[in-house]
Amino acid sequence: MKIRELLEKPLRSKISLEFFPPKDRANWPKFFNTVQKLQAVDPLFVSVTYGAGGSTQAATLEIVTTLKRDFGMEPMAHLTCVGASSEALREFLDDLIRADVRNVMALRGDPPQGESKFIPSDDGFRYASDLVQFIAVRYPDIGIGVAGYPEGHPEAVGLKEDLDFLRMKLALGGDFVVTQLFFDNAVYWDFVRRAQAIGVNKPIVPGIMPIFSLKFIQRITSMCGSSLPSGFMRDLEEADAKGGDAAVQDVGMAHAAGQIQDLLDNGVPAVHLYTMNRSDGCLRILEQVRC
After folding, report:
1. How far apart are alpha carbons 162 and 155 in whole angstroms?
2. What is the mean pLDDT of residues 255-279?
3. How far, CA to CA in Å, does 73 sit from each of 3, 163, 265?
């Protein structure tokens, strides 16, 4: 089923999850053990990423197939423009359909490791909008999610221009938006208001990332342009100084639970939780949330 249709069902779970395929196949049993534990969440849908340059694309295909067949979940496979060709995209999308996987997350993607600049493929897949249009025209039975950036894409000229690109992705066939991570819900609601003001009327699902390590989240936010509120950052630094990662996790999980509860209470279509493949932490967070 297309995720767009799931988002319209009022009695379904309002939590979706994102998983990261292990690079080493030896870690797959541990990964699927994590998935099994998170089945208790009864997620609305689950998304599966793949590495820069499609480095784990085959793993993504196998994993989404397993999630659908063996776990009864509704998976969404990430797909990027990096190194993309029409032939390879057709092959991947045909494989998804054969596996009864009907949703993709269409992204431009980051440059492959060692490269500082995104270089489009010979087939002209320069932007996520090119990928959206390709899928929407040739594979109308596949649902398409697109990314939104409440604080702006790091390469965007400005917030207005970034929103114009989002509107274009949706007009070309995107069904819904999943946002980049953010740590202040006011940022999300401002983003929604600005999007609606320019005619965006499709669901915007907020993406929440739990903080399990101060160093890790500092690196992630420096890459994606998301900001940490000064008071929250101070709490994390104090926790790190007193108790290291364990203390940081307590502060980070409490903050994530508070964000999720507030978002649900105020009527978001769903909340997308970046699991970091951590079933323990995610379950602790969601135990604090009334869905």
Report:
1. 9
2. 97
3. 12, 31, 25
- Helix, strand, coil % over all residues of the chain, rounded to 5: 50, 15, 35
| Residues facing residue 208 across a β-bridge | 273
Supply the pLDDT for residue 54: 47
Of residues 5, 8, 18, 161, which has the active-site annotation?
18
> Side chain identity at 241, as an amino acid letter?
A
Q: Between these two residues, 154 and 203, which has the higher pLDDT value? A: 203
- Would you say how long the chain is, in residues? 291
Would the pTM count as exceeding 0.90?
A: yes
CB atoms within 10 A of CB 13: 15
Query: Tokens for 129?
Result: 């909008």
pLDDT (average), residues 161-167: 96
Question: Rounded to whole angstroms, how far apart are CA atoms 120 and 129?
Answer: 13
**3 state SS of 31:** helix
Percent of the chain with pLDDT over 70: 92
Contact at 8 Å (CB) between 273 and 16? yes
Written as one string, the DSSP assignment of 106-140 is: EE--PPPTT-SS----TT---SHHHHHHHHHHH-T
Domain 3-287: assigned CATH number: 3.20.20.220
What is the longest distance spanned by two Cα atoms in the chain?
A: 55
Structure tokens at 12: 């379904």
Mean pLDDT, residues 4-29 taken together: 91
Clarify whether 18 is annotated catalytic.
yes
Q: Are the beta carbons of 248 and 211 closer than 8 angstroms? A: yes
Residue 200's DSSP bridge partners are: none
Alpha helices in 151-276 (DSSP H): 159-171, 185-197, 214-224, 230-265
DSSP 3-state of 203: coil
